[in-house]
Amino acid sequence: MIIPDWLMSFATIDISVWEKVARTIAVYLAIAVLFRVAGKRLLSQMNSLDLVVILLLANVVQNAIIGPDNSVLGGLVGAAVLIGFNAVLDRIAESGPRLRRLLIGKPTELITNGRLDARALARMGVSPHELDVALRRQGAAAIGDVQRAQIQPGGGILVDLKSGDQPATRDDLVAAVVALTELVRSAKPAGHGTSTS
Fold first, then answer.
1. Model confidence over 4-55: pLDDT tens digits?
2. 128-135, long-range: CB within 8 Å, 24+ apart, which pairs?
3. Among 11, 23, 160, 174, which has the highest number of CB atoms less than 10 A from its own CB?
4. Whole-model pTM?
């Protein structure tokens, strides 16, 4: 049986599998370091300029991963290495707090007890407007309402409101209704509501 040339080109890798694996891992680690250096903001608080960087970055490193190889099998090998290596690093990161801090990073405090850390905000590249939007989305009307706000390693801003400024939950409302009902019952006079003839 003769295999057509176009089908053979799908399965013929122009560089060795080990070189493909090494290129993929090297580019993965380099991009991971670049993201750590670029800061947490780039990961979630992206503006249109950041999106352009991400899109171009994918195109720039493509040739570094695939080399002169354009085969389908080579692309699948690269994809499998990326997914597998990422899964391994995720497991390593979860094996202990030190490794997690090294590989993923740690949260950065932006607000503590209603006080803004302007240096941390500038260091993380978060504008006051972006912080304000994040606070309002999580129920804070002002910085003074916030017990703590952190930018997480993934770029999200996590807000803990002060106890008096937290929105009421359904359980809070049910407890308040029960307490009011008991208060009303205990306040009624003993003979109230009975008729005498």
1. 666 666 666 677 888 888 888 998 888 888 877 766 655 656 667 777 777 7
2. 130/41, 130/45, 131/157, 134/45, 134/159, 135/159
3. 23
4. 0.60
pLDDT digits (tens, 9 = 90+) for 91-100: 888 888 888 8
Pair of tokens at residue 190: 């003993």
**CB neighbours of 97 closer than 8 A, spacing ≥ 6?**
none
CB 116 within 8 A of CB 56: no
Residues of the chain with CATH 3.30.240.20: 108-165
| 124, 154 Cβ separation under 8 angstroms | no
Report the CATH number of the 108-165 domain: 3.30.240.20
Q: How many Å apart are CA 122 and CA 126, to the nearest integer?
A: 6
